[in-house]
Amino acid sequence: MQLSNDQLLLPGFIDLHIHAPQWPNAGVALDLPLEDWLNVYTFPLESKFQSSDFAKKVYEDLVQELLAQGTTTALYFGSVHNAGNLELVKACLKYQQRGFVGKVVMDNPQQTPANYRDESAAQALTDTKTFINSVYELNKKARIAVTPVITPRFLPSCTSEALAGLGRLARQYNLPIQSHCSESDWENGYALQQYHQRDAAVLDHFGLLTDKAVMAHGTLLNEADLDLFHRQEVSLAHCPISNVYFGNAILPAKQILERNNKIGLGTDISGGFSPSIYQNIRQAIISSHQRYEGVDAQLDPQTRGTKAPMLTMQNAFYMATIGGALSLHVPTGQIKAGCYADLQIVHQNWKTFQTETPQLRFEKLLYQTDKANIDQVLVQGKIVIGKEKYCENHK
Ligand code: GUN
Ligand code: FE
Q: Is the pTM of this model over 0.90?
Protein backbone atom coordinates (compact mmCIF):
# COMPACT_ATOMS: atom_id res chain seq x y z
CA MET A 1 0.00 0.00 0.00
CA GLN A 2 1.40 3.37 -1.07
CA LEU A 3 0.39 6.66 0.60
CA SER A 4 0.34 9.87 -1.43
CA ASN A 5 2.14 13.00 -0.19
CA ASP A 6 -0.95 14.46 1.46
CA GLN A 7 -1.99 11.23 3.21
CA LEU A 8 -1.21 10.05 6.73
CA LEU A 9 -1.58 6.70 8.43
CA LEU A 10 -3.20 6.66 11.89
CA PRO A 11 -4.40 3.90 14.18
CA GLY A 12 -8.15 3.28 14.09
CA PHE A 13 -10.04 4.73 17.05
CA ILE A 14 -11.77 2.89 19.86
CA ASP A 15 -15.19 4.09 20.98
CA LEU A 16 -15.30 2.88 24.59
CA HIS A 17 -18.93 3.79 25.26
CA ILE A 18 -21.81 4.01 22.81
CA HIS A 19 -25.53 3.19 22.98
CA ALA A 20 -26.32 1.66 19.58
CA PRO A 21 -30.13 1.90 19.80
CA GLN A 22 -29.91 5.63 20.55
CA TRP A 23 -28.41 6.43 17.12
CA PRO A 24 -31.73 7.79 15.72
CA ASN A 25 -31.80 10.30 18.63
CA ALA A 26 -28.28 11.68 18.17
CA GLY A 27 -28.64 15.44 18.65
CA VAL A 28 -32.08 15.29 20.25
CA ALA A 29 -33.36 16.78 23.53
CA LEU A 30 -30.03 17.53 25.14
CA ASP A 31 -31.60 20.35 27.14
CA LEU A 32 -33.14 17.93 29.66
CA PRO A 33 -31.46 16.56 32.78
CA LEU A 34 -30.39 12.89 32.61
CA GLU A 35 -33.36 11.33 34.41
CA ASP A 36 -35.96 13.15 32.27
CA TRP A 37 -34.01 12.58 29.07
CA LEU A 38 -33.96 8.83 29.80
CA ASN A 39 -37.67 8.63 30.58
CA VAL A 40 -39.03 10.97 27.93
CA TYR A 41 -36.76 10.28 24.94
CA THR A 42 -34.37 7.40 25.45
CA PHE A 43 -36.37 4.52 26.90
CA PRO A 44 -39.23 5.04 24.39
CA LEU A 45 -36.75 4.90 21.50
CA GLU A 46 -34.92 1.84 22.84
CA SER A 47 -38.25 0.03 23.32
CA LYS A 48 -38.70 0.07 19.52
CA PHE A 49 -35.83 -2.38 19.15
CA GLN A 50 -38.15 -5.24 19.91
CA SER A 51 -38.62 -5.07 16.14
CA SER A 52 -35.68 -6.88 14.57
CA ASP A 53 -36.34 -5.15 11.25
CA PHE A 54 -36.01 -1.73 12.85
CA ALA A 55 -32.92 -2.90 14.75
CA LYS A 56 -31.25 -4.20 11.60
CA LYS A 57 -31.86 -0.93 9.75
CA VAL A 58 -30.47 1.27 12.52
CA TYR A 59 -27.53 -0.96 13.44
CA GLU A 60 -26.32 -1.48 9.88
CA ASP A 61 -26.36 2.28 9.38
CA LEU A 62 -24.55 2.95 12.67
CA VAL A 63 -21.77 0.40 12.20
CA GLN A 64 -21.01 1.71 8.69
CA GLU A 65 -21.08 5.29 9.98
CA LEU A 66 -18.63 4.55 12.81
CA LEU A 67 -16.22 2.79 10.45
CA ALA A 68 -16.41 5.77 8.07
CA GLN A 69 -15.54 7.99 11.08
CA GLY A 70 -12.39 5.94 11.70
CA THR A 71 -13.72 3.89 14.63
CA THR A 72 -12.43 0.35 14.17
CA THR A 73 -13.42 -0.98 17.61
CA ALA A 74 -16.56 -0.14 19.61
CA LEU A 75 -17.95 -1.14 23.00
CA TYR A 76 -21.72 -1.05 22.53
CA PHE A 77 -24.71 -1.02 24.81
CA GLY A 78 -27.57 -2.73 22.94
CA SER A 79 -31.14 -2.74 24.23
CA VAL A 80 -32.91 -5.31 26.42
CA HIS A 81 -33.99 -7.32 23.35
CA ASN A 82 -31.94 -10.34 22.35
CA ALA A 83 -33.16 -10.55 18.75
CA GLY A 84 -32.37 -6.88 18.17
CA ASN A 85 -28.98 -7.17 19.86
CA LEU A 86 -28.07 -10.04 17.56
CA GLU A 87 -28.75 -7.70 14.61
CA LEU A 88 -26.05 -5.44 16.06
CA VAL A 89 -23.67 -8.39 16.36
CA LYS A 90 -24.44 -9.35 12.74
CA ALA A 91 -23.83 -5.79 11.55
CA CYS A 92 -20.38 -5.81 13.21
CA LEU A 93 -19.59 -9.15 11.57
CA LYS A 94 -20.92 -8.06 8.18
CA TYR A 95 -19.06 -4.76 8.01
CA GLN A 96 -15.99 -6.07 9.87
CA GLN A 97 -15.90 -3.81 12.89
CA ARG A 98 -14.34 -5.17 16.08
CA GLY A 99 -17.47 -5.17 18.23
CA PHE A 100 -18.10 -5.61 21.94
CA VAL A 101 -21.85 -5.88 22.48
CA GLY A 102 -23.95 -6.04 25.63
CA LYS A 103 -27.55 -7.04 26.21
CA VAL A 104 -28.74 -4.27 28.52
CA VAL A 105 -30.19 -5.42 31.84
CA MET A 106 -32.79 -3.17 33.48
CA ASP A 107 -35.28 -4.99 35.66
CA ASN A 108 -36.14 -2.51 38.42
CA PRO A 109 -39.87 -1.71 38.04
CA GLN A 110 -39.44 1.45 40.13
CA GLN A 111 -37.05 3.06 37.65
CA THR A 112 -38.00 1.64 34.26
CA PRO A 113 -41.18 1.83 32.12
CA ALA A 114 -43.52 -1.17 31.95
CA ASN A 115 -43.04 -1.56 28.20
CA TYR A 116 -39.27 -1.44 28.39
CA ARG A 117 -37.72 -3.58 31.08
CA ASP A 118 -36.67 -7.16 31.78
CA GLU A 119 -39.55 -9.18 33.12
CA SER A 120 -37.60 -10.21 36.24
CA ALA A 121 -34.03 -10.60 37.44
CA ALA A 122 -34.15 -14.32 36.67
CA GLN A 123 -35.35 -13.63 33.11
CA ALA A 124 -32.68 -10.98 32.60
CA LEU A 125 -29.98 -13.45 33.61
CA THR A 126 -31.38 -16.22 31.42
CA ASP A 127 -31.57 -13.81 28.48
CA THR A 128 -28.00 -12.67 29.10
CA LYS A 129 -26.78 -16.29 28.99
CA THR A 130 -28.77 -16.95 25.82
CA PHE A 131 -27.28 -13.82 24.25
CA ILE A 132 -23.72 -14.87 25.13
CA ASN A 133 -24.21 -18.31 23.58
CA SER A 134 -25.86 -16.86 20.46
CA VAL A 135 -22.88 -14.55 19.95
CA TYR A 136 -20.49 -17.50 20.26
CA GLU A 137 -22.56 -19.32 17.66
CA LEU A 138 -22.47 -16.37 15.20
CA ASN A 139 -18.73 -16.02 15.79
CA LYS A 140 -18.11 -19.43 14.25
CA LYS A 141 -18.35 -17.87 10.75
CA ALA A 142 -16.58 -14.65 11.68
CA ARG A 143 -13.27 -13.17 10.59
CA ILE A 144 -13.31 -10.83 13.59
CA ALA A 145 -15.22 -12.20 16.57
CA VAL A 146 -17.67 -10.06 18.53
CA THR A 147 -17.25 -10.17 22.31
CA PRO A 148 -20.39 -10.37 24.45
CA VAL A 149 -20.38 -7.97 27.41
CA ILE A 150 -22.16 -8.15 30.77
CA THR A 151 -24.25 -4.94 30.84
CA PRO A 152 -26.18 -3.76 33.89
CA ARG A 153 -27.47 -0.39 32.65
CA PHE A 154 -26.70 1.41 35.92
CA LEU A 155 -27.68 1.07 39.57
CA PRO A 156 -31.08 2.80 39.39
CA SER A 157 -32.30 0.49 36.58
CA CYS A 158 -31.30 -2.79 38.24
CA THR A 159 -32.45 -4.81 41.25
CA SER A 160 -29.75 -6.10 43.57
CA GLU A 161 -30.67 -9.63 42.49
CA ALA A 162 -29.86 -8.80 38.87
CA LEU A 163 -26.62 -7.03 39.83
CA ALA A 164 -25.46 -10.01 41.91
CA GLY A 165 -26.37 -12.46 39.15
CA LEU A 166 -24.53 -10.43 36.51
CA GLY A 167 -21.43 -10.31 38.71
CA ARG A 168 -21.55 -14.11 38.88
CA LEU A 169 -22.04 -14.45 35.11
CA ALA A 170 -19.09 -12.15 34.39
CA ARG A 171 -16.88 -14.39 36.51
CA GLN A 172 -18.29 -17.64 35.16
CA TYR A 173 -17.82 -16.64 31.50
CA ASN A 174 -14.77 -14.43 32.12
CA LEU A 175 -16.33 -11.58 30.16
CA PRO A 176 -15.99 -7.79 30.05
CA ILE A 177 -18.50 -5.70 32.01
CA GLN A 178 -19.87 -2.24 31.19
CA SER A 179 -22.07 0.15 33.10
CA HIS A 180 -22.41 3.79 34.14
CA CYS A 181 -20.86 5.03 37.38
CA SER A 182 -21.25 8.37 39.18
CA GLU A 183 -22.39 10.10 35.99
CA SER A 184 -24.49 12.84 37.54
CA ASP A 185 -25.53 14.21 40.93
CA TRP A 186 -28.81 12.34 40.55
CA GLU A 187 -27.19 8.98 39.78
CA ASN A 188 -24.46 9.42 42.36
CA GLY A 189 -27.11 10.36 44.93
CA TYR A 190 -29.26 7.32 44.08
CA ALA A 191 -26.60 4.88 45.33
CA LEU A 192 -26.14 6.86 48.55
CA GLN A 193 -29.85 6.99 49.21
CA GLN A 194 -30.66 3.40 48.23
CA TYR A 195 -27.57 1.53 49.42
CA HIS A 196 -25.97 4.05 51.83
CA GLN A 197 -22.79 3.53 49.85
CA ARG A 198 -21.13 5.14 46.88
CA ASP A 199 -21.96 3.98 43.35
CA ALA A 200 -18.51 2.43 42.85
CA ALA A 201 -18.62 0.57 46.19
CA VAL A 202 -22.02 -0.94 45.36
CA LEU A 203 -20.88 -2.12 41.92
CA ASP A 204 -17.80 -3.60 43.57
CA HIS A 205 -19.92 -5.38 46.16
CA PHE A 206 -21.72 -7.18 43.33
CA GLY A 207 -18.46 -8.26 41.65
CA LEU A 208 -18.84 -5.79 38.79
CA LEU A 209 -15.54 -3.92 39.15
CA THR A 210 -13.02 -6.24 37.52
CA ASP A 211 -10.00 -5.54 35.33
CA LYS A 212 -12.34 -6.13 32.38
CA ALA A 213 -14.90 -3.56 33.55
CA VAL A 214 -15.46 -0.27 31.72
CA MET A 215 -17.42 2.34 33.66
CA ALA A 216 -18.80 5.28 31.71
CA HIS A 217 -18.63 8.97 32.64
CA GLY A 218 -17.50 9.02 36.30
CA THR A 219 -17.63 12.81 36.50
CA LEU A 220 -18.52 12.62 40.20
CA LEU A 221 -16.07 9.91 41.26
CA ASN A 222 -14.03 10.88 44.31
CA GLU A 223 -10.43 10.00 45.17
CA ALA A 224 -11.45 6.85 47.07
CA ASP A 225 -13.48 5.65 44.05
CA LEU A 226 -10.53 6.33 41.75
CA ASP A 227 -8.23 4.42 44.14
CA LEU A 228 -10.63 1.49 44.00
CA PHE A 229 -10.68 1.67 40.17
CA HIS A 230 -6.88 1.81 40.15
CA ARG A 231 -6.45 -1.14 42.52
CA GLN A 232 -8.85 -3.31 40.54
CA GLU A 233 -7.71 -2.05 37.14
CA VAL A 234 -11.18 -0.84 36.22
CA SER A 235 -11.35 1.43 33.15
CA LEU A 236 -13.14 4.71 32.73
CA ALA A 237 -14.89 5.67 29.49
CA HIS A 238 -14.53 9.44 29.27
CA CYS A 239 -17.40 10.89 27.20
CA PRO A 240 -16.58 14.59 27.07
CA ILE A 241 -19.43 15.77 24.83
CA SER A 242 -22.12 13.92 26.77
CA ASN A 243 -20.65 15.03 30.08
CA VAL A 244 -21.25 18.68 29.21
CA TYR A 245 -24.98 17.92 29.11
CA PHE A 246 -25.42 15.30 31.83
CA GLY A 247 -22.22 15.04 33.86
CA ASN A 248 -22.83 17.99 36.24
CA ALA A 249 -19.03 18.43 36.36
CA ILE A 250 -15.92 18.12 34.20
CA LEU A 251 -13.95 14.90 34.57
CA PRO A 252 -10.35 15.62 35.68
CA ALA A 253 -9.06 13.45 32.82
CA LYS A 254 -5.49 14.76 33.02
CA GLN A 255 -5.24 13.92 36.71
CA ILE A 256 -6.77 10.49 36.10
CA LEU A 257 -4.12 9.80 33.45
CA GLU A 258 -1.40 11.03 35.81
CA ARG A 259 -2.51 8.65 38.55
CA ASN A 260 -2.30 5.81 35.99
CA ASN A 261 -5.94 4.83 36.04
CA LYS A 262 -7.12 3.13 32.85
CA ILE A 263 -9.11 5.55 30.65
CA GLY A 264 -10.36 5.74 27.06
CA LEU A 265 -12.80 7.89 25.06
CA GLY A 266 -16.45 7.29 24.24
CA THR A 267 -19.05 9.11 22.16
CA ASP A 268 -21.97 8.05 24.41
CA ILE A 269 -24.39 8.37 21.49
CA SER A 270 -26.95 9.86 22.10
CA GLY A 271 -25.98 11.60 25.34
CA GLY A 272 -23.25 12.83 23.01
CA PHE A 273 -24.54 14.05 19.64
CA SER A 274 -21.53 13.08 17.54
CA PRO A 275 -20.41 9.64 16.32
CA SER A 276 -16.89 11.02 15.80
CA ILE A 277 -14.02 10.25 18.15
CA TYR A 278 -12.18 13.20 16.53
CA GLN A 279 -14.91 15.48 17.90
CA ASN A 280 -14.60 13.87 21.32
CA ILE A 281 -10.82 14.32 21.29
CA ARG A 282 -11.42 18.02 20.70
CA GLN A 283 -14.12 18.32 23.37
CA ALA A 284 -11.91 16.52 25.90
CA ILE A 285 -9.34 19.27 25.45
CA ILE A 286 -11.90 22.09 25.38
CA SER A 287 -13.53 20.84 28.60
CA SER A 288 -10.14 20.45 30.23
CA HIS A 289 -9.35 24.11 29.40
CA GLN A 290 -12.67 25.23 30.87
CA ARG A 291 -11.97 23.28 34.04
CA TYR A 292 -8.64 25.09 34.32
CA GLU A 293 -10.06 28.54 33.59
CA GLY A 294 -13.44 28.32 35.35
CA VAL A 295 -16.66 29.78 33.99
CA ASP A 296 -17.99 32.53 36.23
CA ALA A 297 -16.73 35.98 35.18
CA GLN A 298 -17.81 37.47 38.52
CA LEU A 299 -15.18 35.43 40.36
CA ASP A 300 -11.62 36.57 40.73
CA PRO A 301 -9.37 35.06 37.99
CA GLN A 302 -7.30 33.37 40.69
CA THR A 303 -10.24 31.45 42.12
CA ARG A 304 -12.35 31.08 38.97
CA GLY A 305 -10.95 27.76 37.75
CA THR A 306 -9.06 24.75 39.12
CA LYS A 307 -5.70 25.82 37.62
CA ALA A 308 -4.95 22.10 37.47
CA PRO A 309 -2.87 20.85 34.50
CA MET A 310 -4.78 20.48 31.23
CA LEU A 311 -4.98 17.63 28.75
CA THR A 312 -2.60 17.81 25.81
CA MET A 313 -3.41 16.58 22.32
CA GLN A 314 -1.11 13.60 22.99
CA ASN A 315 -3.20 12.76 26.08
CA ALA A 316 -6.46 12.89 24.12
CA PHE A 317 -5.04 10.84 21.23
CA TYR A 318 -3.74 8.29 23.74
CA MET A 319 -7.22 7.91 25.25
CA ALA A 320 -8.77 7.45 21.79
CA THR A 321 -6.31 4.69 20.89
CA ILE A 322 -4.04 2.97 23.45
CA GLY A 323 -6.26 3.83 26.41
CA GLY A 324 -9.26 2.15 24.81
CA ALA A 325 -7.18 -0.83 23.66
CA LEU A 326 -5.82 -1.46 27.17
CA SER A 327 -9.33 -1.18 28.60
CA LEU A 328 -10.59 -3.90 26.26
CA HIS A 329 -7.41 -6.03 26.43
CA VAL A 330 -7.03 -5.95 22.64
CA PRO A 331 -3.67 -5.46 20.89
CA THR A 332 -4.75 -2.50 18.79
CA GLY A 333 -4.54 1.31 18.88
CA GLN A 334 -0.88 1.43 17.84
CA ILE A 335 0.95 0.99 14.56
CA LYS A 336 3.54 -1.56 15.56
CA ALA A 337 4.45 -5.23 15.31
CA GLY A 338 2.23 -7.38 17.48
CA CYS A 339 -0.80 -5.12 17.09
CA TYR A 340 -3.69 -5.66 14.70
CA ALA A 341 -3.60 -3.53 11.55
CA ASP A 342 -6.64 -1.45 12.61
CA LEU A 343 -5.85 1.69 10.67
CA GLN A 344 -7.19 4.83 9.03
CA ILE A 345 -5.66 6.71 6.12
CA VAL A 346 -6.54 10.40 6.11
CA HIS A 347 -5.66 13.25 3.78
CA GLN A 348 -5.05 16.94 4.35
CA ASN A 349 -3.80 19.33 1.72
CA TRP A 350 -2.71 22.32 3.72
CA LYS A 351 -0.57 24.76 1.81
CA THR A 352 1.70 25.21 4.86
CA PHE A 353 1.92 21.51 5.64
CA GLN A 354 5.60 21.08 4.93
CA THR A 355 6.78 24.04 6.99
CA GLU A 356 5.31 23.04 10.34
CA THR A 357 6.97 20.95 13.04
CA PRO A 358 5.72 17.37 13.55
CA GLN A 359 4.08 18.42 16.85
CA LEU A 360 2.14 21.26 15.20
CA ARG A 361 1.14 19.04 12.28
CA PHE A 362 -0.12 16.44 14.77
CA GLU A 363 -2.25 18.98 16.65
CA LYS A 364 -3.59 20.59 13.50
CA LEU A 365 -4.43 17.18 12.03
CA LEU A 366 -6.50 16.16 15.03
CA TYR A 367 -8.26 19.52 15.26
CA GLN A 368 -9.14 19.56 11.57
CA THR A 369 -9.77 15.98 10.49
CA ASP A 370 -13.30 14.76 9.92
CA LYS A 371 -15.08 11.97 8.08
CA ALA A 372 -14.57 13.71 4.72
CA ASN A 373 -10.79 13.45 5.20
CA ILE A 374 -10.82 9.71 5.86
CA ASP A 375 -9.91 7.87 2.64
CA GLN A 376 -9.61 4.30 3.86
CA VAL A 377 -10.21 2.33 7.03
CA LEU A 378 -8.73 -1.10 7.69
CA VAL A 379 -9.71 -3.58 10.36
CA GLN A 380 -7.30 -6.40 11.04
CA GLY A 381 -5.50 -5.77 7.77
CA LYS A 382 -8.53 -5.60 5.47
CA ILE A 383 -9.96 -2.47 3.86
CA VAL A 384 -13.51 -1.94 5.16
CA ILE A 385 -14.01 1.66 4.00
CA GLY A 386 -12.67 3.15 0.78
CA LYS A 387 -11.35 1.45 -2.30
CA GLU A 388 -11.43 -2.36 -2.36
CA LYS A 389 -14.03 -2.22 0.39
CA TYR A 390 -14.34 -5.52 2.22
CA CYS A 391 -17.80 -6.73 3.08
CA GLU A 392 -18.26 -10.29 4.16
CA ASN A 393 -21.45 -11.78 2.83
CA HIS A 394 -22.76 -12.74 6.22
CA LYS A 395 -26.16 -14.33 5.97
N1 GUN B 1 -27.38 6.16 32.45
C2 GUN B 1 -28.22 5.13 32.27
N3 GUN B 1 -28.56 5.00 30.99
C4 GUN B 1 -27.91 5.95 30.33
C5 GUN B 1 -27.85 6.32 28.96
O6 GUN B 1 -28.48 5.73 28.09
N7 GUN B 1 -27.05 7.37 28.66
C8 GUN B 1 -26.34 8.03 29.60
N9 GUN B 1 -25.57 9.04 29.22
N10 GUN B 1 -26.41 7.72 30.88
C11 GUN B 1 -27.17 6.69 31.24
FE1 FE C 1 -23.99 6.16 28.44
A: yes
